[in-house]
Amino acid sequence: MVRVNQSLVLLLMAAAIAAGLTLWRMGLLQGSGTEAPSTWVPEPAAITDKEVAASSEPSVRHPVETPWPARLGAGDVARVLTDLLGAKAVATFLQVDEFPRRLVATIDNLGRSHAPSMLWPVHPTPDRFKVEWHDGAPIIGIDNDNRYTALVLIVEEVDPIRVAGLYVRMYPMFQRAYEELGFPEGYFNDRLIDVIDVLLATPDVEYPVKLQLTEVKGPITPLRPWVRYEFVDPDLESLSAGQKILVRVGAVNQRRLKAKLAEFRQELVRRAPMR
Asked: Which residues contact residue 181 at a Cβ distance below 8 angstroms, ignoring those fewer than 6 apart?
């Protein structure tokens, strides 16, 4: 489904920072409204064929080295995020409570089919997902991308070098959260790089993008139909949650977010210790 909430970028860049889009939400998912309370409830992670095939690869492909004096603790999160983005941006866009866990869970989910908004490290995008009608069928609204402009502008202003530096200092918290998520043998930075690559591989689409409402069987009428839209094109509907987000935010925002993600990825790889 097209249930993608807000702004990938903060999410992922947040990912990086945690500055997020990132996405990096980065992202951008659902319409408006508040979902369930922000309780930490990790979902079981499905293991894909690709991940099984990769089991023969080195256990750590993109190492991160955080010197002890530079490491940050949970009590430092709000302060360092404020130093990076400013108090107003943090209050407006970020969910600071349990930020490392929220970020790690969301980054992981952006590469999967569903990214539950209750776990996001960013607040929902204002207003509802905008839909218009064209030739008798719903399409993504022409002005829908305006909902993400403020967040995209903030992401573009963040220095990827500073984001990467902060991410490295916070990395022990991210790694611990990733292990608690259900990957005791996994390495979060490898997963982050993989998800960024998935996002960068999001296909260019021809707008307007056609939508349809997911069929609901039963007598109960959904109270929020705008969260039930899915892509008519089966290839688009089969994209990961993060890729759907990038389709949903519009061509211009997608191009700008991809450029920032590519810069961040390059900086992360450049910082990898020699082995």
From this structure: 42, 45, 101, 104, 105, 108
Residue 262, H or E segment: helix 251-271
Q: Does 3 fall in a domain?
A: no
Q: Would residue 156 count as lying in a domain? A: yes
Cα angle, residue 46 at apex, residues 188 and 257 outer, rounded to 5°: 50
Q: Is 59 helix (H, G, I), strand (E, B) or coil?
A: coil
Distance, in Å, from the CA atom of 153 to the CA atom of 100, rounded to the nearest integer, reads: 23
Domain region containing 54: 8-271
| Residue among 22, 4, 5 nearest 200 (CA) | 22
CA dihedral 53, 58, 59, 63 (to 10 degrees): -130
Average pLDDT of adjacent 10-residue blocks, the chain of 275 residues: 42 45 35 36 47 57 90 92 90 90 96 88 80 89 88 88 93 96 95 97 93 69 61 95 94 95 94 74
How many independent structural domains does the chain possess?
1
Instruction: Give the CA-trace dihedral at 218, 29, 110, 38, to 10 degrees.
Output: -80
